[in-house]
């Protein structure tokens, strides 16, 4: 069975659960597309002086025909009460151009007696006739050609005009002989989300867009336009989606989320419940991770998720659910290996985490640490509640929702992924009593495999890396986060003559604030490079010093630190992590020299000046920022639509029952309207006034556009074919509005 909803009815069911009766699927009713016809009714005088009528039917073209079994070879048949005529078949197109004309005699002279033509003596009988156009897909199957749709047009409208040209929607074939009870097939519960936005050019949205984009700078943030939108919407999610896309498009997502997260942390009393609710902050971070982190998920999880889906290793560890022939210990070992591998790829993936996510996590960490200074773990749980609980664990559980698999996994694979997701989520939570997190005893037993300190240390190191930021905040209360350390060999940074004496073994140490080296671990640093001074980190070609595994750290004024790692793996790790922490630096280079400057020239390009710009493009390090295809104007239009939908609530807030009711400028420090918190009545009132004005202006522009469009639009045009019920409804509404205005 099927559920079919007319386009014009979609708005009725928007964003709410509805039960729909299932209908029987009938090939004759599954139609789509439109056809362009020209009809001409002519009077013809015969040689004997008798008048007869002829109908010329011109089939010009079709658009949007359905593709049947991967192909569409359409043709049309035209019928008028007699044998049908057929166009040529157009191969491999669902937008065929026919441009063929068929002639029919509608009335004949009385002496005409050719039996192959129909006999209509009375011209008035024309009013009762109809021309039928059927579209078919020429099929090689034994079942015959597939019906694509039909059109039935009464000829009476041609009595007023001898020529008529228009576009028509194809209609299903009328099978009136079927009588089926509507409840034969049962019902289906659906939640349909339907939006339709008519987007103006950018200048129309400037006032509202500017008001939204400055939300991060409004004090307090609860008085900002973006925060107000989140409060008035029935679901936080419907506000978060366009807000995140708009702020990402204009590069303002980090300050906005930092502001609303900081406000939420201040209102949180218990560190164990931090960011656990479905607040605007949580929904905005979720949406940001989905958009900016999709590539990150692909490179991190997809290879092993694909393997799990293809190999089908038994991993059931519930003794009650074991299948015949399965061994519990073998299943536990299969599952343990999968969890170990996924845990490792996640905790080693910090250098690939997108910059925008890292900057948000840095802000969350700072706010949480400042608010709960006595809780040393809150700086980790504030970040893990998103990256593990809301990002990796859901992606493992439902990979199809995160574009990791094309379809929902089969039941066995789905069960395996559920068990992995539960374990990864618990590992990432850094909970003190982890066995208590499981309702099932078999999960608690399985988790004993991972009750080792090395797992907690790996999680903390990963969280440290993704929540560190090269943008040093001098107000930060955080101590520098150690990211990596170890012995390497460095070459002096001066321009001294080359010699082995210039290479020395040193202990290198990288934090989110600086890159240093010293003689031994624990000694005072001999050299310190602030993270903001790292302009590029690139490999160094072996020919420079005839040494392998070398890389260079380029600083201002062309100072270069040449370093040799112990092996190629270590070299890559250092390059990746140094690139990661420095990739936000404003003065990062776009070109570099892949070889050293020796004996008065660059070995790579032979340039003699040591300040010659680089000759090779920088590798750019990691795909940390993925370009998103976002239309800022459409997102602003979506936000306008939401404000317009909830206008009664906005007006009520602005009116007597909220800000305006308690002497707006003298109100108490904190008031509450329903679930809406007003920290500053004066600022909130100002913002509400600007929102209502901006929305009102856009509403007027939309109304004027519709009026102008109504005057210009022709029913039967390509944009609005005959049979477009939504347009018919629109015409009726506009006519009623015009009549009311008069």
Describe the fold and architecture.
The protein has 742 residues and is of the alpha+beta class. The protein has helices at 206-213, 225-232, 236-249, 253-267, 280-292, 294-311, 328-347, 355-371, 378-397, 411-429, 441-447, 453-466, 568-582, 632-645, 647-654, 681-712, 725-741; strands spanning 17-21, 34-45, 51-63, 74-79, 85-86, 97-107, 130-137, 146-154, 163-169, 187-191, 482-491, 503-511, 514-518, 527-530, 536-539, 550-554, 560-564, 591-592, 597-598, 601-602, 616-617, 671-673, 676-678. It folds into 4 domains: 34-111 and 120-179, Immunoglobulin-like (Sandwich); 197-265 and 635-658 and 678-741, no CATH class; 268-467, GTPase Activation - p120GAP, domain 1; 482-493 and 501-583 and 585-617, PH-domain like (Roll). The relative contact order is 0.09. It is elongated. The protein has a 7-stranded antiparallel β-sheet. Helix content is 35%, strand content 18%. Pfam families: BTK, C2, PH, RasGAP.
């Amino acid at each position: 069975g099927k559920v079919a909803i007319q386009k014009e009815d979609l708005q009725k069911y928007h964003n709410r659960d509805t039960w729909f009766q299932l209908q029987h699927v009938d090939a004759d009713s599954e139609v789509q597309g439109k056809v362009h016809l020209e009809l001409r009714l002519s009077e013809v005088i015969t040689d004997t002086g008798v008048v007869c009528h002829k109908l010329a039917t011109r089939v010009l073209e079709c658009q949007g025909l359905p593709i049947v079994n991967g192909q569409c070879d359409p043709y049309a048949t035209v019928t008028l009460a007699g044998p049908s005529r057929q166009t040529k078949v157009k191969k491999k197109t669902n937008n065929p151009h026919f441009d063929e004309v068929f002639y029919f005699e509608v009335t004949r002279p009385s002496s005409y007696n050719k039996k192959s033509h129909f006999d209509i003596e009375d011209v008035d009988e024309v009013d009762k006739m109809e021309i039928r156009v059927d579209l078919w897909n020429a099929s090689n199957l034994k079942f015959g050609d597939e019906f694509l749709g039909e059109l039935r047009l009464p000829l009476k409208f041609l009595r007023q005009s001898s020529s008529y040209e228009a576009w028509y929607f194809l209609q299903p074939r009328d099978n009136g002989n079927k009588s089926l009870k509507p409840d034969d097939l049962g019902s289906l519960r659906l939640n349909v989300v339907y939006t339709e936005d008519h987007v103006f050019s950018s200048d129309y949205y400037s006032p509202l867009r500017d008001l939204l984009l400055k939300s991060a700078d409004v004090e307090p943030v609860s008085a900002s336009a973006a925060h107000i939108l989140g409060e008035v919407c029935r679901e936080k999610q419907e506000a978060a989606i366009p807000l995140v896309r708009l702020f990402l498009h204009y590069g303002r997502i980090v300050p906005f989320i930092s502001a609303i997260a900081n406000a939420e942390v201040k209102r949180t009393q218990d560190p164990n419940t931090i960011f656990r609710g479905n607040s605007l902050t949580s929904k905005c971070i979720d949406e940001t991770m989905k958009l900016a982190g999709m590539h990150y998920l692909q490179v991190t999880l997809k290879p092993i998720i694909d393997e799990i889906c293809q190999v089908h290793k038994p991993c059931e560890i519930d003794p009650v659910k074991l299948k015949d022939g399965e061994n519990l210990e073998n299943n536990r070992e299969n599952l343990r290996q999968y969890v170990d591998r996924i845990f490792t790829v996640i905790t080693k993936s910090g250098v690939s985490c997108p910059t925008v996510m890292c900057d948000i996590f840095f802000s969350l960490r700072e706010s949480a640490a400042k608010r709960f200074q006595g809780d040393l773990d809150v700086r980790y749980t504030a970040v893990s509640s998103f990256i593990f609980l809301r990002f990796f664990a859901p992606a493992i559980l439902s990979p199809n929702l995160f574009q990791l698999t094309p379809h929902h996994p089969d039941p066995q694979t789905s069960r395996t992924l559920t068990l992995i997701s539960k374990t990864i989520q618990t590992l990432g939570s850094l909970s003190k009593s982890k066995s208590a997190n499981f309702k099932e005893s078999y999960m608690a037993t399985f988790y004993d495999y991972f009750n080792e300190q090395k797992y907690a240390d790996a999680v903390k190191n990963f969280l440290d890396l993704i929540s560190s930021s090269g943008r040093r905040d001098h107000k930060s209360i955080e101590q520098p986060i150690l990211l990596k350390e170890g012995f390497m060999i460095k070459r002096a940074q001066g321009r001294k003559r080359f010699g082995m004496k210039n290479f020395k073994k040193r202990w290198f140490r990288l934090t989110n604030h600086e890159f240093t080296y010293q003689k031994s671990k624990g000694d005072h640093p001999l050299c310190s490079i602030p993270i903001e001074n790292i302009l590029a980190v690139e490999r160094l070609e072996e020919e420079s010093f005839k040494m392998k595994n070398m890389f260079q750290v380029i600083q201002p004024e062309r100072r270069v630190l040449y370093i040799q790692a112990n092996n190629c793996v270590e070299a890559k790790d250092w390059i990746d992590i140094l690139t990661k922490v420095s990739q936000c630096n404003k003065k990062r280079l776009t070109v570099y020299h892949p070889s050293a400057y020796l004996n008065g020239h660059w070995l790579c390009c032979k340039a003699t000046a040591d300040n010659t710009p680089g000759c090779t493009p920088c590798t750019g390090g990691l795909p940390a920022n993925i370009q998103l295809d976002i239309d800022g104007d459409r997102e602003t239009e979506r936000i306008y639509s939401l404000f317009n939908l909830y206008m009664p609530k906005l007006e009520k807030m602005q009116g007597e029952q909220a800000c305006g009711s308690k002497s707006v400028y003298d109100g108490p420090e904190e008031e509450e309207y329903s679930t809406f918190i007003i920290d500053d009545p004066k600022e909130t009132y100002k913002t509400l006034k600007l929102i209502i004005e901006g929305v009102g202006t856009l509403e007027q522009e939309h109304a004027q556009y519709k009026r102008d469009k109504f005057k210009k639009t022709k029913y039967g045009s390509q944009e609005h074919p005959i049979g477009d019920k939504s347009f018919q409804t629109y015409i009726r509404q506009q006519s009623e509005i015009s009549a009311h205005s008069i």
